[in-house]
Amino acid sequence: MLFDSSIRKELARSFGATLVVLITVVMTMMLIRTLGQASRGSVAPSDVMLVMGFTVLGQLPTILSLSLFIAVVGTLSRMYRDSEMVIWFSAGRGLMSLLAPLLRFSWPVMLAVAALSLAVWPWANRQVQELKEQYEQRSDVDRIAPGEFQESSNGTRVFFIDKDSPDANAANNIFIATTEPHRETVTSARSARLEVRNGERLALLSDGQRLETLLDKPGLRISEFEEYGTRIGSAAPGDREEAAAKTRDTHELAQSPLPAYRAELGWRLGLAFAVLNFTVLGLALAVVNPRAGRSGSLVFALFAFVVYYNLMTVGQSWIAAGRLGLPSFMLALHGGTLLLGLLLLAARHNHWSPRMLRRGRSAA
Fold this sequence. Notes:
Elements: H1 2-39, H2 48-81, H3 84-90, H4 99-136, H5 140-143, E1 150-151, E2 157-160, E3 170-179, E4 183-197, E5 200-214, E6 221-234, H6 250-255, H7 259-285, H8 296-320, H9 326-349, H10 354-363
Antiparallel strand pairs: 1-2, 2-3, 3-4, 4-5, 5-6
Helix pairs in contact: 1-2, 1-4, 2-4, 2-7, 2-8, 4-7, 7-8, 7-9
C-alpha cells in the first residue's frame, strides 16, 4: 500500500507540473500562430483569443499524453538515481510490480484523452472552421476600414476609403488597385455607394478616373467616368463547402468508407491507445546510466515520443491514400508498440541479456 501511494503521489506532482508547463508553451505558440493568421486576413482580430482557445483545446490529447510520458519516465528515473528502486527491489518488488500502480494512475488520463480526441477534437475544429469561414465570407467592402489600405479576400485588389464616410452604404474619396494576370488597373473616385441588383452586390463609383496598364503591351490607358460599377459579391453568402474530415463527428467517420474519414478515425483512436503504450514504454525505458547523465533516459523517451507520433502521421496519410487499411495500421503500430514495450519490460524484469540468450541457445 505504501509502495503504490508513494509512487502515485510523486507521479501526480510531476504530471501536474509538466502539464502546466506544456500548456503554457502551447498557448504561447498558438497565440503567435493565430496572430499571424489574423495579420494575413484569415482570422478576425476580434476572434484571436477564441481561435487560440479552441486550438489549444484540440491539442490537449497530445499534451496530456506527453505529460504522462514525461511524468512516468522522470519519476522512475529519479527513483533509480536516488537508489529508491534498489530499496523496493530488495523488498521483493520487481519491475513488473510497478505496472499496476502506473496503470491505476494513468487510466483517468486515458479516459480524458479518449473523450477529448473522439468528441472535443472535432467540435473544436468545427468552431475554428466556422469562425474562419464567417470572416472569409464577408464581402470586400465589409473588410475595408476607413483611412486604411485593405487587401481583398482573394488578394487581387487593394481598397482605400476616406475616414469621413456619410454612412455604411456610402463613402468618399475611393481608391482601388487591381492586379490581374495580364493587366493592372488603378481606379479612383470622388464618392461611391452600395446597391444590390439581380442578387449582385455592386459598388457604384461616381466622378472618377481609371488607369489601365497592359503587362504584355507598352502604354497606359486613361479613362474618366461619371459612374462606374464593380461587382463585390453576392447578396447572400453561398452554401458552405463540405467540412473537412477533422471536423466530422466520430460516429460519422465510423460509418463512412471514405479513406480520408478512415484516416481521421485512425488518428483519433490512436491518440487514446497511445496513452497505454506510453505508460508501458515509460516503465520499460526509465533507467539511469551514470555515464550518460541524469537526463539520458528522458531525452531517449522524448525521441521515442516524436517517432511514435510521426509514425501515426505517416500511417494517417497512407490510410487516406488507400495504401493501408485501418485495422492493419492499428494492429501494426499500436499493437506492435505495446508488444515491444512488454518485451522490453519483461527483459528488464527477468534480467535478460544477449549473453544469457546465447547461452540458452547453446545449451539447447
